[in-house]
Write the C-alpha cells for this entry.
Amino acid sequence: MEQVDIAVIGAGPAGSSAAAWAARGGASVVLFEKATQGREKSCGDGLTPRAVIECRRLGIDLDRFHRIDGLRVQAGSKVREVLWPDGAFPPVGAVAPRAEFDAMVMQAAIDSGADFRENSPAELWIEDGRVLGVICHGEKVRAHLTVIASGAGSPAARAVGAARVASSPFGLAIRGYISSTRSDDRHMEACLTVKGPDGSIVPGYGWVFPAGNGIVNIGVGALSTMKNFSDLNLNTMLDAYTAQVRDSWGLGEFIARPKAWRLPMHVEHRGGPGWVVVGDAAGLVNPFNGEGIDYALESGRHIAECFLAEPGTAWASYQAIMRKEYDPFFATARRFAWLIGRPKLLQFLLGIALSTKFTMKLVLDIMANLVDMEHPGLAGRSLTIGGKVLSLADPLLVRSPKKREKRPTTPVG
Ligand SMILES: Cc1cc2nc3c(=O)[nH]c(=O)nc-3n(C[C@H](O)[C@H](O)[C@H](O)COP(=O)(O)OP(=O)(O)OC[C@H]3O[C@@H](n4cnc5c(N)ncnc54)[C@H](O)[C@@H]3O)c2cc1C
C-alpha cells in the first residue's frame, strides 16, 4: 500500500499551498484534486495585498494578471478611494481569474515535488474513529497527516466533525464575467448599499473587479444575518446591481452564466490526530469582506510548517496558531456581521462611516483587509475595542440558528 507523509484532499489555494510548502520542506506529499488543473471556481478573483504577499512567499509571479492599486467604496451617492498603503503589505493587488490563478498554485505544488493527481475525487479513510489517510478510485493511501482542503461544505470535513458552527454567520455570493470599457481601471470597486428582496440595504456588497482584457468580474454577496435571508435571490440582486453600474462601467453582455457559492466563516473543530482542515473547509472567509484566498494560502503554509517542525503534533500546533492569530479577528468580524444584519442599524452605521474622513478610512482599511493585528494602528485598535464592546452584547446580537437555517433558493454550484 502507498504510504506518504501528507495526503491533501483538494487543490485549491489552501491544498496547493500546503502541498507546496510541505514538499519543499522534504515531506512526501500526494495532492488529490477531483477536477483538473485549470478548473473554474466561483470567486471575485480579487487579490488584496495580503494575498499578494503570500503569493510572493510561494514564488508565484502575478505580473500576468491585471494590477490593482487600491479600493473604491461607493455607498449611495458617496464615493471614496484608497490607494494600498506601503506598509506591512506590498502596495499591490491583482484581479486573477481563478482558473488561471489556481492552476499556477497547483503548478507551484508540482514544481515543489508534490505528487499531483487530477480527476481524483478522494474521501477520508477512517478506521475505528481514526483518520488513516484517503481512499481514491478504490485505492487506499496511508498518510501521517491528511489535510482536508476541499472547500466550502466539504463532506470530508463534515465526516470528522469540522462542520460550520450553526449559530454563526455565513455568506452567499454570486459572480459573473462581463465585457466592460473600463476593464483597465486600477481600483477594485465595492458598493455597500445593494438592496435585498424587501428593498432594504443588505449586509454585504456588490463589486466590480476589473480584470483587464476587456473583462470585469461583477458580483454580489450577502451575509446570512440579513433580515429575510431565506428570500434572498442572488440572481435578481446581481441583475439589479449590474443595471446600476452598467453605464458607469460601460458594461456589455455576460460571458457565461453567473455562478453562486457559499462563504463559510466559522468552523470550531479544525483538527484531530491525523487530520486538519484548511482554507474554506476551516471556515476561513473574512466576514468583513468575503475574502478567503489569502487565508487559504496562509493556512496551507501554517500546517506545512507545523508538520515539518513536529509531525506527530502538527494538528494540535496548527490549531493553536489558528486560535491565537485568527480567532480573535474572526470573532469580532462575526459579531459585526450580526450587528449589520439589522437594516436600520446598518443604514445608521453607514451614515456614520461615510460622514468623516477618519471613519471612511477605517471602513476602507477593513474592507481592503489592510489591518495588520501585529502592528494594529488605528484601524486595528478600533477593531479590538469594537470587538470587546460587541462581545458584551452577544446574547442580544446572535439570533436563533433555527430561525436562520432556512436557506435561500438561489442555486449554488
Ligand atoms: C462568489 C464568490 C466571490 C469570492 N470572491 C473572493 C475574492 O475576490 N477574493 C478572495 O480572496 N476570496 C473570494 N472568495 C472566497 C474564495 O473563493 C475562497 O475563500 C477560496 O477559494 C478558498 O480556497 P480553498 O482552497 O479553501 O477552497 P477551493 O478554492 O474551493 O478549493 C477546493 C478544491 O477542492 C477540490 N475538491 C473538493 N472535493 C474534493 C474531493 N473529494 N477530492 C478531491 N478534490 C476535491 C475542488 O475541486 C477544489 O479544487 C469568494 C467566494 C465566492 C463564492
Q: What stands out?
A: The mean pLDDT is 91.
